[in-house]
């Protein structure tokens, strides 16, 4: 039977914890990592009522988007809803796992699901992250006898399997340069090529690949395991390049331009919202930027991307002025912009595990905001 730890590994392969924001607290919130899963209940927020529903429906794991433990807890006395939730989970052996801004910042996550609901095409990351990539350079023998066994191919295959060589939607990416490597094996060495204390010059290939920094340890292990040399020469260089597939928000295109009123009607229908708070805007809406949750910090990025509309939640009064008449800023609500995140979790879990346990969407409402229309 899969364990809670297996579930964490699966979700973190899709949304690595390295991509969460510094203020966040994604990951396993409470529970035994070695516990076998009897069922998973998916929710946007975890509350005492959600834990009770999990117990009632035979689920010993709750997967939530928002972490229930967001700030450090100094005590567990049941004085507030957070403490009550954790106490209920511990009493009933229910593990709680949260994937928050790490799921916001990856393709296939929260924003891709929102884009899908709005029918956006040709989507790209609105605010790509920088400082998440590195370049690995290494050198392998390139003599005729080595070419017959394809040493370079063997090393590269190991690096690809460990997570290197991905550029956007292209995999198995590398660069090769021919050259000559020189070395003198010291006393006590067991060189794959050459003799102790004798200078050696070997035809070599210089191999270069990109890798995400959070895969560094795994990629270096793979390099050492696959490389023919006793001592593996390599360079690892952190890059400032933006990661095209990692970052906040998305921007895409509607299939056809809509009048502002028609676009707001689309938001109401597709996001099941009775009210859209928005700025005045009279031009047709074609290019749309989105960010699930509290996305006011990306208003400037949406303007810079040439968006006609920016859809997000939790926009404050003064932040609406940030539209500067250049786009229609639409606040559909925090919950409303993220309410379909459960479908992301469900799809990941059902595809990643055999049907040995139920994966259920919570029925208990958790949106604290109500509307009178």
Fold and architecture overview:
The chain is α/β, with parallel strands linked by helices. 29% of the residues lie in helices and 28% in strands. It has 12 helices and 15 strands. The protein has helices at 4-14, 48-56, 81-91, 101-104, 110-118, 144-149, 151-161, 216-226, 260-271, 299-304, 334-338, 341-352, and strands at residues 27-30, 39-43, 61-64, 95-98, 121-130, 133-141, 175-183, 200-212, 234-239, 242-258, 277-278, 285-294, 309-313, 328-331, 358-361. The strands form 3 sheets. The chain has a 6-stranded mixed β-sheet with strand order 5-10-12-13-14-11. A 5-stranded mixed β-sheet has the order 1-4-3-2-15, with helices on both faces. Strands 7-8-6-9 form a 4-stranded antiparallel β-sheet. Helix 10 links the parallel strand 12 (285-294) and strand 13. The two termini are 48 Å apart. The model has no long low-confidence stretch (mean pLDDT 96).
In angstroms, what is the radius of gyration?
25 Å
Principal-axis shape equals globular
Helix content estimate: 25-40%
Provide the low-confidence segments as ranges. Answer: none
Beta content comes to 25-35%
Overall mean pLDDT score?
96
What gap, in angstroms, lies between the N and C termini?
A: 48 Å
Write out the strand line-up for the largest beta sheet, numbering strands in chain order: 5-10-12-13-14-11
Q: DSSP helix count?
A: 12
Largest sheet: 6 strands, mixed
Order of helices and strands: HEEHEHEHHEEHHEEHEEHEEHEEHHE
β-strand number: 15
Keywords: Metal-binding
Protein name: GTP cyclohydrolase 1 type 2 homolog
Family: Belongs to the GTP cyclohydrolase I type 2/NIF3 family.
